[in-house]
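Crash report, auto-generated. Payload:
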Amino acid sequence: MTARERTRQQLDPAGTIGSRLIAVGAALAAFIYADVMTVRSGDQVAEPLFAVLALVALGFACIVVIVQTSPLRAPLSARVHAAVLIPALIAAGFSTAAGWGVDKYVRDDWPPISLGLLFLALVSYRPAREVVGAGIVSAILLGFLVLLQTPGFVTDAPPVAFVLQAVTPMLALCVGGATFSCIFVASLERWHRRASRATASLSRELRDGIARSVQQDRVTILNRDVVPFFSEVLTRGAIVEDDRDRARAIADSIRRVMVAEADRSWLETVIEHAGTDSIHGRDSSGLVQDEQRLASLMTTDQRTAVRALIVAMFDLPSFDPTSLGIVLSTRGHGSRGVFTARAGSADYSVRAALAPYLAVMRVVFSDLQVDISEPALAIRISY
Amino acid sequence: MSLGLPAHLAPLALGRSFSGGLHAVAATCLTASLLLVIVFQYADFNTVLWPAALALVPMGALLWFNDRARSAFSSASYLIVGGAGVYWFALTFYSQSHPIVVGDAFSLAGPKIALLMVGGSGTGLTMALTWTVAGYLVAEAASIGAIVQSGGRPEFDVLTFLSFFALVVVMVLVDMSRRIALRAQPRLHRAARDEQLDALRYRIEVKAAALMHDTVLSHLAALAESKTGGLNPLLQEQMERDLEILIGEEWLSEALPAIDSKTRADWQNSGLYAAIQESRALGLEIESTGDLAAVARLGRESSVALGLAVKQCLVNVLRHSGTTHAEVAIYGSETDVSVMVVDTGRGFSEGETGADRLGLRTSVRRRIEAIQGSVQVWSTPGRGTSIMIRIPTDAVAATSETA
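Recovered output after restart:
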């Protein structure tokens, strides 16, 4: 996994699911606005073919936004940003070509607003700096296209005024959106810093208690066998025949306990805790197949995401806890995990309930594939 | 960490970011309007347009103030000064001999839209909508007033209305998106906390297991191999210590004893402290626990050797373990000082002897054995590594005597 980018999507994947509403809304608005304006100023179209091509290119950019902002396709990359920006700029070019020589007013040209809306759609998904950079590039291009057309405009005004009129809405939307995401990302980062400090002090506070309970576990074993045995040998000051076998037997039993403990992975513990009621003391080890101990290779973030997902799955009303199966295996240099379960209810409700957790997983794992086809649920991860 | 803001902070952060975004839009509109005034004034010196620029400057200043303060007072001030600004701006353009009012290249909407973007104080959708409506009404009233006063005929300003409408839609959508986000956050936060605690417990268990392995198990093994008859005095001593340490004290307790300034100074002058600080600088998170004062009982030579050895262990953690967290635990007894370097990373198997293990062999083992100390390593693939370094407190004395 590469380093996290400073985008809201990558720092707060679950929270960004809601932003998709805005992204999809803005993309649709951009396209509808362009269509309406094209039809309304039909008399200013010299080349209908170019007008159509402009709308097709813009439509493509909008579809890319709608598809790629899906939480299951996170994180939205710079490449996708380019795949939105370039067709949108091509659309602006076609739009200018369509009205070449007959465009009378700059105010009814759609590219500034539609481009601005597309930037607005992407602000939660790309770093603010990148969005502003793209906005500036687009402003220069749009300004240039307007300058080319000024001789045809009916209003008598300085050419620079037309350029300003054209680029201002786009820049305003772009700068406003970028500022929003910039401030939000900064508060996320501030909170993360504060939260990790708080966790560190919480750990310190709880440490002694945990240490005592771990020690208690050990001492229980020791008190039963080792303490009486050592005391006996020490009092006697000599070793008798029987001691050797007893020493071996005690060592074996301690080792067995240690091996059993070492063999339990955190994943099994999580499932056991999540399903205390539903599993009814069943051995959770059967649910997890992880011979190579790959669960321990997950990072803290990955474990947190998996933990939250498992708890969420157990909380689904229609979830059948006994159907859960997790298989971890190596693949190439990395590891691969497959979670399967019977969720039992309609796809969309399962999808909606798990979406925030899957969104987080999508960002912390290098690959995530989700297959929900009622009643089966399969989630594949790579790390 | 990929967690969003907790429920009590999210509305505040969202409100602040949203206001910031609105103010950026307003600033862009005001700047563009200012540039337009300059461009038109420059293009035609017969008109008197520069006063319109004077309307924009206080608006910009109040916008800045409102952005900083984000209070009801700052927002209301912005609306009042902004309303006057819009009025003055419109009046300047409408009262020219040839009013530049219907031009394609110009509109009054810039400052008016800037007024819509007041942002306002407080959190929540209702509050935000109220301020926006107030901004719209003030902007329209001011511009209509100016147009009427200059003898013009007010017309419905489509651009400002569309901006107002779009802003309201965005506000509703942002509020909805926040509600969606809130549903999952508590569970994610709980998962993060549980994970933290589990990791903590696991680290302590690894340490406990290693200690148990080091003491009880190895002494049981020694017993099992002993001949019948008298108890080896060394083994007897070790078994006594086992009982003393494991049963008598809280051997896993991490609470640092209250340390006086001398102890602190000794600790900070030790080679071990230097090793920990240097490794922290390399990006490793290190927790140092236990009896820090014990390190002061080591001679200079031992202290330096211990520091270098621990540094090598920590470098190994950073290079090979796959984790950036390690723990250095110090145990002191009358006769020796033990330092344990624990990580819960990748671990390795005994058979695996890569180049990195050479570091362990030469930099750690040889160095410590040279001062009469001992090194023990426990590691299991996937379960982390614990390295126990034990140095007798009179090690230097012993070496200098033999020398």
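Post-recovery validation: Chain A touches chain B through 112 residues (CB under 8 Å).
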